[in-house]
Amino acid sequence: MKGFGFNRSEILRQYGILFVLIAMFIIFSVATPNFLKVENLFNVARQVSMMGIAAVGMMFVMIAGGIDISIGSLLSFVNVFCAFLIVNFNVHPLWASLAAVAVASVGGFLNGVIVTQMKVPPLISTLAFMTIWEGIAFLISRGMTIFGLPDTFRTLGSGYVGPIPIPVIIMVVFLAFGGFFLNKTYIGRYFYAVGGNEEAAGLSGIHVRKLKWLVYTLCAAFTAVAGLVMLARLNAGAATTGKGFEFQVITAVVLGGVSIAGGTGRMFGVIIGILIMGFLSNGMVLLDVSEYVQRIIQGVVLVLAVGFDCLSKDIGMDKKGVLKSE
Amino acid sequence: MGGDIILEFVDICKEYPGVQALNNVSFTLRSGEVHALVGENGAGKSTLIKTCSGAVRPASGKIIVRGKPYDHLTPITSMENGIAVIYQETSLVKEISVWENIFLGEFMRSGLLINKRGMIERANALFAQLGMSIDPEALVKDLTIGYQQMVEIAKALSRDAQILVMDEPSAALTNAEVDTMMALVRKLRASGVGIIYISHRLDEVFEISDRTTVLRDGCLVVTEETKNLTRDSLIRLMVNRDMSETYPERPPCADTEVLLEVRNISGNGLSDVSLHVRRGEILGLGGLVGAGRTELAEILFGKARPRSGEILYKGKPVRFRIEGDAIRQGIALVPEDRKRQGVLLHMSAQDNITLPVLKGISRVLVINARSAKGVVRKYWDALRIKMPNPRMPAANLSGGNQQKIVLAKWLATDSELIIFDEPTRGIDVGAKREIYMIMNELIASGKTIIMISSDMEELMGVSDRIVVLAEGRVAGELARDSFNQETILEYASSAS
Predict the structure, then answer these.
(1) Quick check: A196 and B344 CB within 8 A?
(2) CB A186 to CB B301 under 8 A?
(3) Is B103 helix (H, G, I), strand (E, B) or coil?
C-alpha cells in the first residue's frame, strides 16, 4: 500500500524526537555530574511548568491552524495586573487571579474575532496584541516591579505536595486535560478537522468561526494560569516577565510535532518537546554556557524543528500527489 | 494534410493505484495538423497530455519529439522542445497585465531595465499576426475567459511553440468566442503548428480536426482520418456500450410534492434564479463552467447567502446562515472538489464519516467510541467501501472510495436532499457506475437529489429533469423525454 511511506515519516516524527530527548539526556548526564540528581530533575520540571501549561493552549491554536505570538506579553500583563490588584487594592488573591484569567480570556476571544471576522492573519492579529498587552502592563506598573505579595499566594509557586512541586502538579493536570480533550471530545476532533482543511470542515457542518474563537480564548486563559504560577514563583510582578515566553512555548510545541500548517500533533510529542526545551536550558546552565549562546542555540532548535516539519510535509504531499493525479 | 511527424508517443504505459491510466498507447502528431483526442472522462486523455507537458512520468514507453527520443519529459524539456499546453483553467497571473503575462520569466531587457515598450510592441505584433485585438496593457482579470485563453495561446507562440495541446479549450466559452478560437486554430495550423485538440463537443472535432484518436479505459481504440468517421461511429468507439449499461435503470419519478423551491434568488453570481425539485426526483443542473451551478449549490447549503429571493424547504421559508443550518434541515452537499472540500485527507476514513454526527454521539463533550464505530460499520458495507481498515488516512483511498466516504458522511446524518456537485469527476468507469447505483438506491429509499454535472451523458443518463444555467440565470428546462445534447448546449451557451 502506498500509505506506508507517509506513516513512516509520521512515526519518524513521533519517535525521532524521543531519541533526541534521550540522546540529550545521556550527553548532559555524562557532561555534568549535577544533571542527574533528583533535585535537579524536579527543578527542571518546575521550570518548565509555566511553559507546559501555556503549551496546551498553544497546541490547540496551532492544531486548529492558527498561532498566537501574544502570549509572552499576555504573561507579563497577567503578572502585573494580578500583583497590582493584590498589592495596591488589597483584592483577595483568589479574586485577583480570577479577574486576571477573565481579562486575558476576553483578550483571547477578541483575537479570535479579529482573525475570523476581519480576516486578519493570526500572526498579525496576535502581533498587535503582543504590543497591546505589553503597553498595558507598562502602563499599570509604570515600569516598576510590584512587590509585596502575601505568603499564601507564594505557595502556589513554591509549595510542595509530598516531594512534588505544586506548579508541576498544575502542569500535569493541564497536560492530562489537553490530551483527553484532543483525543476524546468532539470539539478536540473539530480542532484537527478545521486545522487540516477549513473548507471541508465547514462543509461538514462545523462552525469554524466559533471554534477559532474558542481556541484563542482557551490559549489566553491557559497562558493566564501560567502567568499566575509565574507570579507566585517570582513573588513580584514586572512588565518584562514574559519576554521570550512565546518563543519557548512555540518551539516546544513545534518540536513536539504539531505542524505549523495545522491539523496534526499529539500530546505525547508536545510533552517531549517541553522536556527537551527544559533539559536543554538546564543542561546549558549547568555547563556554564552563556545566556547569549543559549539564545542562539534555541533559535537554531526552532529552525530545525520547523524545517523538519515542513520537509516531512513535503514528503507527505508527494505521496498524496501520486494519488491526486488519478 | 499535415507534414512531418513532430511528436510521437510509443507504447506509453502509466498506472495509478487501482487504475491502468494508459495501456500501451501510441500516438503521432504531424506539423500543420489538428489531431483530435477524444474519449470519456477517465479514458486517459489527461494523463496522456500530462506526459506531454512533463507533469506525469510514464512507467514505460518512449516519447519522440522531432526525432529526439525521451523516456519521459520534464516541464522544462517539454518547454524547450516547443511544447505548450493550454488548460481549461488558464495559468495566467490574473492581477498583472497581458504583456507581462506573455513575457513572464523572459522579459526583454535593455541593460538592467526591462524594455516595456519593446514588449508591448511585440505583443501587439503577435496579436495582429493572430488576428486578435487585445490591449496588451489591460489586466488579465478584466478579460473574459475566452480572451484569457487567447492570451495564453499568444504566450505559447511568443516562445516558438510548435506543438500546441489544447485541453477542452471551448468548455468555458460562449458560442461567439468558440468561433473566434476556431479561426485562430485554423490560422495556426496553416502556419505549420501541430495541434492536439481535446474536446467533449463532437461538432468541434468534426469541424476542425484532420485526424481523430479515440481512447477508452486507458487503451488506444483507433486513430483515423476524421473525414472517415461519423458522429455515431465515433460515439460507439468512445463508449463501446449502450447508455443503459452505464446508467442503471430507474423507474421514472412520480408527480410528488415539491421538496425545495428557490424563488428569484440573486447574489453570489446568480441573478433571479427560480427552480424547484420534487421529492424523490433527480434534478440535473447543466451549464458551462462558471454558469452559477456551484454558486447555487453554495446558497442551498448555506455556504453563501443570497442577496435577495427566498428558499422554501418543505413548504416553509428557510434561511441558512451557515452550513450547519442546512445540515440540520437534512440537506447534504457532496462537493465538486473532493480533495479540497469533500474529504479531510489528513484524518482517518472513520473520522471523516462521523464528523457531522460527532456532536450527536457525544455525551457532554466526550465522543461515544462505540456509537462512532457503529455509524462507520453501518455504511461501510452498504456503500461497498474498499479499504482494509477505517482507521487508515483517507488520503490512501482511490477517488471513488473517497467519494463514498463523503456519501457515507451524509447518509449518517440522514439527509433528505443530497446535492451532488460533479459526483464522478476523476472517478474511473467502474466506480462511476457504482456511484450511479448508489444514487438510485438513495432515490428508492425516499431521498431527493440535485446533481450538477458537466458530463453531458451523465446529465442525461441520470436526471429526471434538467435545468440549464447560463451566466447566473436559468436558461432553460428539459423534461426527460425531451433530453437532447444540442438543446442543452444551446441553452448553456445562450448569452443573456
Answers:
(1) yes
(2) no
(3) helix
Residue range B309-329, pLDDT digits in tens: 999 999 999 999 999 999 999
How far is the alpha carbon of A201 from chain B, nearest alpha carbon, in Å? 8
Q: What is the pLDDT of residue B131?
A: 77
Rounded Cα distance, B357 and B335, in Å: 18
Contacts of B330 in chain A (CB under 8 A): none
Residue A8, pLDDT > 60, answer: no
Residues B338-383: tens digit of each pLDDT: 888 889 988 999 999 999 999 989 988 999 999 999 989 888 888 8
A189 in reach of chain B (CB within 8 A): yes
User: A247 in contact with B at a CB cutoff of 8 Å?
Assistant: no
Q: What is the mean pLDDT of chain B?
A: 86
Percentages (nearest 5) of helix, strand, coil residues in chain B:
35, 30, 35
Among chain B residues, the shortest Cα distance to A185 is held by B366
What is the model's pLDDT at position B200? 72
Q: How many CB pairs under 8 A join A and B?
A: 108
List CB contacts of A313: < 8 A, sequence separation 6 or more.
A259, A261
pLDDT class for A98, splitting at 50, 70, 90? very high
Confidence of residue B141 (pLDDT cuts 50, 70, 90): confident
Which residues lie below 8 Å from residue B348, measured CB to CB, with a gap of 6+?
Answer: B390, B391, B392, B393, B394
The answer to whether B191 and B34 have CB atoms below 8 angstroms apart is no
A5 has a chain B CB within 8 A of its CB: no
Cβ–Cβ < 8 Å for B406, B343:
yes
For residue A306, is pLDDT > 60? yes
Q: Give chain B positions within 8 Å (CB) of A202.
A: 303, 322-323
Q: What is the pTM of this model?
A: 0.78
DSSP B176: H
Measured between alpha carbons, how far apart are the two ends of chain B, in Å? 40
The DSSP symbol for B254 reads: P
Interchain CB distance below 8 Å, A203 and B323: yes
Residue A244 pLDDT greater than 60, yes or no? yes
**Segment among B17-21, B162-166, B207-211 with least mean pLDDT:** B17-21
**Chain A residues in contact with B324 (beta carbon < 8 A):** 205-207
**A17-310 to CATH, choices 1.10.4160, 3.40.462, 1.10.10, 1.10.3470:** 1.10.3470
Average pLDDT over residues B131-143: 86
The three cell numbers locating residue B234? 465515433
**Mutation site, A181, A197, A204, interface B, largest B CB count within 10 A:** A204
Calculate how close chain A gets to B492, using CA atoms only, in Å: 28
State yes or no: pLDDT of A326 exceeds 70. no
- Say if residue B178's pLDDT is above 60: yes
Cβ under 8 Å to B: A residues 303-322: 319-320, 322
Minimum distance, in Å, between the CA of residue A199 and any CA atom of chain B: 6
Q: Which of B15, B346, B364, B367 to mutate to test the interface with A (most CBs of A within 10 A)?
A: B346
DSSP secondary structure, A267-315, as one string: HHHHHHHHHHHHHHHHHHHHTT--HHHHHHHHHHHHHHHHHHHHHHHHH
User: Is the CB of A203 inside 8 Å of chain B's CB atoms?
Assistant: yes
Residue of A nearest to B362 (CA): A186
ipTM for the whole predicted complex goes beyond 0.85: no
Neighbouring-strand partners of residue B220: B215
Whether residues A205 and B327 touch (CB distance < 8 A) is answered with yes
B291-309 pLDDT tens trace: 889 999 999 999 999 999 9
- What is the distance in angstroms between the Cα of B108 and the nearest Cα belonging to chain A? 35
> What pLDDT is recorded for position B39?
81
